[in-house]
Amino acid sequence: MKQRYRAVQITRPGVLELVERETPAPEPGEVLIRVEACGICGADAGAIEGEERGIVYPRVPGHEVVGRIAALGAGTPSMWTPGQRVGVGRLGGHCGECSECRQGLFHLCMKQPVTGSSRDGGYAEMMLARSSGLVAIPAELSPVEAAPLLCAGIATFNALKKSGAQAGDLVAIQGIGGLGHLALQYARRMGFHVVAVGRGSDIADDVVRLGAHVYVDSNVDQPSAVLQRMGGARLILTTITDSAAASRLLPGLAPQGKLLVVGAGKDPLAVSPGFIVRGERLIQGAVTGTPYEAERTLAFSVLADVRPRIETMPLARAREACERVRSGDVKFRMVLTMDDAAVARGAA
Fold this sequence. Notes:
By secondary structure, the protein is of the alpha/beta class. The protein has helices at 44-48, 99-102, 143-162, 180-189, 204-210, 223-229, 243-249, 273-279, 291-304, 318-327, 341-344, and strands spanning 4-12, 15-22, 30-40, 64-72, 85-88, 126-130, 134-136, 170-174, 193-198, 214-217, 233-238, 253-261, 282-285, 310-314, 333-337.
């Protein structure tokens, strides 16, 4: 094993720097991962730009991590072995002791690390992770394919699966980006009547190829009115952080319909209590999910042939890659590789 490894760290807010670090040994209950790919998520910007509270710098960002186990700490469960393909998402491993964990609500554990924020993430050749946060990666997925599914994939798949919508229901997906392009694929394969709500005619063909039955361009039509004419949406899944746009879509909900929020904006949603009460409508948030649920997401993606549409860049170009993600100049997800052409091609 190499004594040193490369990492891209946030030296201080707004500053990404390529550095070398000494390879650490895993503590009890941890594993050391040799990283092969790490997706870039829009949420990484919170740590990079200093918008998240409580981050201690320097910090290595990245929470869509895929690699192989390089070393095991003491007490690691026997299901994890050296060389095994694993991943780590945003939730870095539940504690197993808090009230939420005792109820089996591992995704709501308040004592688990947040990968790339409260502990170092995957913009690096090596990474430590709690074994309780590990996800087994199926052989059918390459590292660059699997990485975005550990955040954008599970966030949208889990939300749709738990939404209560049934096959044939009208489901609207708002936002056709890193999350939305996966949500469209999952929704179509789950048997929903899928309406995509986006902005601009340039993505119309992409949206249809991804699975939408109907595309509503908000530059041309009023999306909520279109949904009303179609009978109202049983579910609106909003993947964007524009709370005003999400609020404007609310009138498109059918009675007893649900607005499910996976894109967490900073501004409040604007909604009339009467609108909610009269139609028994719901507004609900959805966080990613447990490692087991992530494995279910990966298994469904393999079964239903759902794949992220990605671009790749080597680790050394992480800053450029992040800037492109922030500008929206990516279709639809960016993944860092560890400068290994074989990994980028999906070789084992």
